[in-house]
Give the backbone structure.
Amino acid sequence: MPLRVYDTRAREKRIFTPLVENKVSIYVCGITPYSPSHLGHARQAISFDIITRWLRKLNYDVKYITNFTDIDDKIINVANKEDVDFLEVANRNIVNYFEVMDAMNVLRADEYARVTETIPGIIDMISTLIEKNNAYIGNDGVYFEIDTAPEKYGQLTGQTLDMVRSGAGGRVGETGTGKRDHRDFALWKNAKDGEPYWSSPWGNGRPGWHIECSAMSLKHLGETFDIHGGGRDLLFPHHEAEIFQSECCLGKEYVVKYWLHNGMINVDGEKMSKSLGNFRTISETFESINPLALRYALLNAPYRQPIEFNTKMLEESKIHYDRLLTTYITASRKVNLGVWKGYDLLENASESFYTGMNDDFNTRIAVVEVQSVVKKLQELLVNESDLGYISAILAWISEFAGNILGLIPNEKEIDNFSKNVDESRRVISNRVEELLIERQQAREAKNWTKADCIRDELNDMNVIVEDGLEGPTWRIE
């Protein structure tokens, strides 16, 4: 099955064919580092980490660029409040970003573009747009004039500007008095007293929000590239504005071949936001869940779907991830990696894994296949049988759960995981997993007496078992 991706602009899944054979260029809108990274940043970063890993698995030569918007109103506000330089605020939060992303096994991008390092390119793009009469100079900056390219509006949203203004997060009209029309957006903002600024042909100031990514993608990937990614919250106005300014500046019908957008995170049924009090930083979340268990949780749904983030979801993810890793560790202490090909279960799991991932990077299907292989490995370990099969399964997990899904840590982190697993759980973990397998076998054989005895033994260990679609999970009461 060829790789198919959902292109937001086309509003359908399309067979993926890169602009240059065997090469893929990706630009993903990164963070504005005014505060520590939050769960939404984790969802976006892991989504495109998986996309990049899978493209490389398919033998594409991938160049992956993301950015830091290191000058912004919010950064300036924090800096003024703390009486520090704006770059001090940005840099410390960039450090936090790398720390939490490394912990979640997010591979580093090939380059991290920064707005403050792209000012000359931004000024060049704005100058070109003015020369082409797509932009004009107002009394407080430079604006893109929407009416000069009306055919480009709604390319991603499929709606008119007035229909979606209410969903723009307040950033459509963030500057105002120099506009000819309320729909126009800022390319350059004249500096206010005390603000950082750069010199330009239109006076001292700084870039508008949208022009930054157009200039950074042009600098690092050229006039056309394969994939532009980001969260669904960037569809409007940010990515719509990028289409306007990039295509008008460069004279291209399409600058981006495929637009990909990941779904958002809801916390306890509501959109995550500071105003609702349900906002969580990644570092805070690490206090209650292992970083790779959090990665597991965020992979357990296709990247385009929203994720419902709550305590139950976290607990289930911890249980499934612990089962994956403890089983992997137990097997790796018995055998070395083998060759996984030639075993029907693994061949079938691989085929389903490929089918899922080639269907718009469906990690939910991939995770289910990992779970099925882990279940088989547990059964083999209980019976201490067929070390060759155990070795093959270990190699399969290392490749598919490790190299592709990024869920297997390195040896040092495995040691730390083993030491940090809750002692009461660690002591009984292997025995509980054995009993769950025996219980399932007894139920399948309709041996209810044995199943009841196993249940009683689990109760005596204060273990609560919950049966679900993905198999039984357990917790200590």
Observations:
- The chain has a mean pLDDT of 90.
- The first helix runs from residue 39 to 57.
- The first strand starts at residue 4 and ends at 7.
